[in-house]
Amino acid sequence: MTSNLERFAPLHTVADALIDYLACTFDVTRCEGIELAGAIEHPRDDVVRAVRLAPADARAARLTFVFASFPSVVMFAGAVQEIRFPDCGCDACDESWNTQAEEMEWQALAVAAGNFSESIKIGWKPWVDVEIYSDGASRSGRSGPLQLSKTRIRDARRLLKAVPDGWVPWQRTHHT
Q1: Rounded to an integer, what distance in angstroms lies between the CA atom of residue 56 and that of residue 154?
Q2: C-alpha gyration radius of the chain
Q3: Is residue 176 part of a domain?
Q4: Helix-helix angle 97-112:10-25, to 10 degrees
Q5: CA angle, 36 as apex, 30 and 39 as ends, to 5°?
Q6: Strand partners of residue 53
Q7: How many CA atoms lie within 13 A of 39 on its CB side?
Q8: Residue 122 lies inside a defined structural domain of this protein
Q9: I need a surface site. Which of 28, 95, 156, 158 has the fewest CB within 10 A?
Q10: Global pTM?
Q11: How far apart are CA 64 and CA 9, in angstroms?
């Protein structure tokens, strides 16, 4: 059961502030449009907005924030990594907006710092191995099977070949 959905409404405000901070701090191109939500593996019918931050260096992972009316945010990082805030949102999980906001910020800043790697493994069904770390903490794991098209998986693997040791840090802006 899922009730009291408004408890996650602050996630949109936090994501906006995080996007603004990243766009002002790093050399990125900011692009906005619902069509950017196509980056996520599991399409949603409640998308209200999507914002992509593309670093100047192609070896640095992009971040796309997809805002859903749930209210929730899906953060798409790099080639195929998709992170949901909240992860579930049901009453039994008892997730709070503030712990989810802290996790979103931690993961986004780790990606910007270049502390993020992913690799696609091909087997009967393709899956992805991911590692993200920062400030002495880390998250790693395997997700899959990927529900992406063969073309998208091929393109992602080609992209990841250029960053065999993980994504590089975003370049900071140089304000005069």
Answers
A1: 23
A2: 16
A3: no
A4: 20
A5: 115
A6: 30, 63
A7: 28
A8: yes
A9: 158
A10: 0.89
A11: 19
